[in-house]
Amino acid sequence: MEQVAGRPRVLLDVPMHYCPGCTHGIVHRLVAEVIDELDLRERTVGVASVGCSVFAYAYFDLDFQQAAHGRAPAVATGIKRVRPDLVVFTYQGDGDLAAIGTAEIVHAAARGERLTVIFVNNALYGMTGGQMAPTSPAGMRTTTTPEGRQARAHGYPLRMTEMLAGLDGVAYAARVAVTSVAGVVRAKKAIRAAFQAQLDDRGLGIVEVLSTCPVGWGLDPVDALRWCETQLIPVFPLGVFKDTASVDHAPARARRHPAPAPAGVRTRAP
Amino acid sequence: MPPAGARVLMKGNEAIAEAAIRAGCRAYFGYPITPQTELAEYMARHLPRAGGVFLQAESEVAAINMVYGAAGAGVRVMTSTSSPGFSLMLEGLSYLVGARLPCVVVNVMRGGPGLGNIAPAQSDYAVMTRAMGHGDSHGIVLAPATVQEAVDLVRLAFELAERYRLPVLLAADGLLGQMMEPVVLPDPVPPPPPPPWATTGGGRRRISSIYLQPEDLEAHVRDLVAVYEAIARTEAPAEAYRLDDAEVGVVAYGTAARIARAAVDRARDDGLRVGLLRPITLWPFPTAAFARPVARWLVVELSAGQMLDDVRLAVAGRAPVAWYGRAGGVVPTPVEVLAAIRRVLRAEGEVVA
C-alpha cells in the first residue's frame, strides 16, 4: 500500500521547543519533505542560525553546523566551496538575515553561492522576547517600539527578498506564507524550487516564509495567522520574484533583454 | 613553484602562503589588508592550481566564518589578516574554539589602536593571548622570528590545530611579512582525509558551540581547560641564546627578538653578560624557561608593553623585570636596545617590577 502521509525521513521524532502556534514546525517539515523527495539526505548539510531556530539542528536527521548570529551564509559558503558535492542550506530568521547578517546574505547572493536559504520572517525578534526587527511593519508594537514602529524614528520594513532578487547571483527568490493549506502547498513548491536551483548549479535560492509568533505578537494562534495575512502580507507581498528555471517562460521583452530584471518586476504566484 | 629542498629568496607573506599549501592547506578565505595582502594574492594565484579554494570574502567577519564552515567540513583551512582585521575575526575565533574546529590564522600585525598605521608592530599580543574573543577561549599562538621559521611553524600550526581541535595563530608583523629572506621549503604533504566529526553529509553530526544547560557548558569549558593545560605542558618552546651565564636576560619574540639578538651580540662584544630568551609560543607562554638564575630581565617589544605582564608572571618576583619598547610602528635599532640593556645593568630606568 502506498503511504500518503507520515513523518518525513529526515525530520526527527523529537519534541520541538517552538511555542504553540509558531509556524517554524511547518517550515521544518516542508524542508524535510523536500530533502526526502529529492533524495538529498546523504549529501545535505544544514546551517542553523541564531534566533528561535537556533536549535533547528536538533530536529533534522542531517549533518548540521551552528553559525554565529548573521553569519550562516558565510559558514555555508565555506562548506559549499570546499565540498561542492554537498547540498547546503541555511535556516535563518529576520534578525539574523535582515539585520546583523545583511552583509553576509547580500554577498553570498552576489557571488551566486550555490546555497538554499530558508528565511523565516515573523516580523520581530522572537527568541529575545519580541523586539523590533528590520521587518516589523509600521505601527507594530514591540518591546523596543512600545508606541509602535514609526518610520521617522525606526525606519521602514526591509524587503530583503525583493532586494536579493535584483542580484545576478540569485537564481530563485520567492516569498510565501504558511497561514493556510494553499499557502503551505505553495511554500513547499517554492522550497523545492530553491533546492533545485542549487542542484542545477544555477545560483542562490531563497525562500522567505512569512511566519507567526503568537507569543511575541500577543495573539492566540488563530488570530496570529489572521494577523499575518492582514498585516504582514500587505507589507511583504507573496510571489516568485525571480526564477531562472522559468526564464524561457518570461515575457518576450525580458528575453530580448536578458540582463537581470529589477527586483519585483516579474512577480507571479509560485 | 620552487622545488622542495631548494634555497629560494621569498617575501615573508608569500613564503607563509607557499608553506601552507605544502602543508596541505586547501582552502583560504581572506580580506585584503596591509601589510599581509601578498599572502592572499599568492593564495589566489597558487591555491587553485593545488586543487584548493581561494575566496576573497566581503569582510574579515565573513572570512573567519567561511573558515568555520570549511573547517567543519573537514578541510585544512586558513586565513590571514592584520590587526584591525584580526579584531573583526575575534567573534568567529571564539566560535571556532567553542565548536572545537581547527584552523590557522596568520596575523601580520601593524600599529594600533584603531586604524593606526601599516608599519610593523606587535600590538596584538594581548588580544591574541589573553582571550581570543568572548568566553574562556584560547588558541595556540606561534611567533616566528625569521621567514624560515615562519615556513616551519606554518606546518606545525596545522598539525597542532588538528591535534587539539583549536585555532592556531601565527603572530607575525609587518616586517616579517614584507621582508625577503632565503628559505628552504619543505616537501609538500597531501591534505589529510576529513576527520570523522566533519559534516560531510549523511550523518547526524553537529558542529556547534551551544551548551544551553550551565552544567553542560561548564563541562565543555572544563574539557577545553584540560586541553589548554595539556598544550601548556607540551607545546611551549622558547629559544635561549647566550643565556647560560647571563646577568641580564632580554625577553623578546618575533621581529623584536631579531633586534634584541643583535643588541645581545654587541653587548657580548663589549664583555657584558647578556643573553636572549625568545618565546616561540606566546600562548601558552613558556613560563618554565624563566627558571634560571638571571639577575635582571628586560622585555623588549614593538608595543606599549603587553608581553611584559606574562614575563612578570613567569618570573614571579624572583628578579626585577624591566621593559623597553617602541609603539606605533616604530622599530628600534639594536643600538637603542643595547642602551636599554646598559641601563638595566646599571639598574637604572625602565625597571617596572
Explain briefly what this protein structure is.
The complex is a heterodimer of chains A (270) and B (353). With 270 residues, chain A is of the alpha/beta class. Chain A has ten helices and nine strands.
Describe the structure.
The complex is a heterodimer of chains A (270) and B (353). Helices cover 34% and strands 17% of the residues of chain A. Chain A has ten helices and nine strands. Chain A has helices spanning 24-37, 72-82, 94-100, 102-110, 151-154, 160-165, 181-199, 214-217, 221-232, 252-256, and strands at residues 44-48, 63-66, 87-93, 116-121, 124-125, 131-132, 170-177, 204-210, 239-243. In chain A, α1 packs across α7 (181-199) and α3 packs across α4 (102-110). Mean pLDDT of chain A is 92; it is low at 249-270. Chain B has 353 residues and is an alpha/beta fold. The model of chain B has no long low-confidence stretch (mean pLDDT 96). In chain B, β2, α2 (37-46) and β3 form a beta-alpha-beta unit. In chain B, the strands form three sheets. A seven-stranded mixed beta sheet of chain B has the order 3-2-4-5-7-6-13, sandwiched between helices. A five-stranded mixed beta sheet of chain B has the order 10-12-11-14-15, with helices on both faces. Chain B is 39% helix and 20% strand.
